[in-house]
Amino acid sequence: MTDLTIREAQARVDAWISRFEEGYWPPLTNLARLIEEVGELAREMNHRFGHKTKKDDEADQDLAMELADILFVILVIANEQGIDLDEALERVLAKYRERDSERWTPVTGLD
Fold this sequence. Notes:
Number of helices: 4
Helix content: 55-70%
Largest sheet: none
CATH class: Mainly Alpha
């Protein structure tokens, strides 16, 4: 398996969705799907690290897969809306660098 850029991941998601007549779901349906996936991650995190214990018949979920499900839906939303997430991530990283550069104590020796 090779490393993917976000742009390549968006292209792979688009290629997969383009195989089906139904294509992309409408924006609000995609948002509902994203919330469902985030809920599944939240449930598993709460089971592992919170106070809510699993029922005896509940299987452990794979955190990596839960996160990947969320990423997939985010890629879908970006594609459906015509958003280049590579470019958007660069912009948001610049925003955080500027806004939060003096917010926390820097780790020494990383320069």
